[in-house]
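Figure 2 data, in text form.
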Amino acid sequence: MTARRLFFIYLLILLIPQVDVCVTERMEDIGKVVLIVLPLAFYWFFLLGFKKPSKAFLWAFPFAFLGAFQIVLGYLYGRGVIGTDMWLTLMTTSPNEAGEMLTQIYPSVVAVCIIYLPSIGYAIWHVKREKPYEKTFRRNMRIVGILPLIFAIVPTTMAFRNEKYKFLDDFFPVNVCYNFKLALARARASANYKEACKSFRFGVTESDSDTIPEVVLMVVGETSRGTNWNLIGYDRDTNPKLSKQSNLLVFGDCMSQSNATYKSVPIILTRATAEDFDVLYTSKGVIAAADEAGWSTVFISNEPRNHSFNDFIGEQAQEVRFQRDSLHGSPMDNLLIPLLHETLEKHKGERLFMVIHTYGSHPTYSARYTREEAYFKPDLAVKPTAENRKIITNAYDNSIRMTDGILSAFIAELDSTGCPAAMLYISDHGEDLYDDARKMYMHASPYPSYYQLHVPLICWTSDSYNALHEDRVGMMASRQQDPLQSDCVYPTLLSLMGIKCNYGQTHLSLADANYKKKTQRTYLNDHNEMMRLEDVIEPIDIEVMKQKGMYVQE
């Protein structure tokens, strides 16, 4: 193949992701023009900067890699460039989890392989034997290239004068590189976390009496969306056991402040919120507060270790167990039930605070429960498409039923101790299941939907806990209809243990007299900036929230 022809083929391949982003992203028209013409001029001269086009294309591999990644992301979420959260998710995702995710997006992976692998392979094979550009062609193309360069300068200047245009956010692949830089900075801060918060103290001034053994259990769910819980109005029987449970408080109007696990879990277990997330890097979590107050602390996780804050916060407990340290693959959450029993037996007569992090309804949904528990059928794994939504939803709802059974078993174990006991459950975020015309699937998308943020929040208390702490339970019961967010969990746990400290955030606690009802919901965006939820989700999501009576506006 001639160098002349290769020049245009490589140029076209490099511009494919620019066109993809131009189609999927919502930005000013002038921004879309810049998105095409400026890279066109750049790649034009880049390919002519080498004597051989294949050599130039191989040096352009980083651009090709980012382009391929962007195409896969566009297929998965419909819109959004590779953000900081996506880079960090890649850094903190286990190989097993990544493998499960790849099975969900293989069509886009195949398409990317078809586009990029043959061209890169050909360039590697052909570069040494390739004839260089003809001198006249190279000279003429440089002259012709002045036209797209001049054409790029005018709209680029106009875009920079437009207040709504933000180069670091809107221009691919510069925005992706900028997000990668932010991700590296956060990764360094995460790696330095233990040293940064080594001397942190909550300054506990009060806690429940150590003469009375109590148990407070925090269960962190995974990918369980509130809209599929029968307890919260879903029309399918996904909560057959919890729906018959006494002493259960259901908070159906709760939204997560993040749709990414590595941020949503710290918001649940620490004083970090969307309004002030950076305090996470220098302060410990609720487990450390309980330890400081004299409680025995235990952390058990069915999630894979990923060297993120989720691990670091859990490791602040006196006893730590990651199931996957000893079990291979993706062990089911029902294996957590005997571990809770063993822990309760071991700590009889003590004040015990325990956190259990489940794997919940993480894809692949049909792998989260046994075949005997496949209540909704057909449910076996199929190609994830909107056409297969019914089968996918059946599998997802079965995973919710699995969670229902596990939480009911946890309650039975706690109740059997006879001591005052409380359990709080919330999911880290929800999930998209091809719910509307957007055909969105899974979670952690650059732009969240209502379905990714609406999460179940429930609380169970034993009869003896109710008798001992009637005021706390009464305050929580009166707030079941309030608009909530995941930032209420950390202070509520402190209140359930009677812990008062310097960082109690009692205005967010459902079990404290200082609680203040939210008049505005917030969201932690990709750059860790607080945004009004209404400015993040789309009108179609707001309409769903209005229909459910969940829309909150100042």
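Caption note: The chain has 22 helices and 13 strands.
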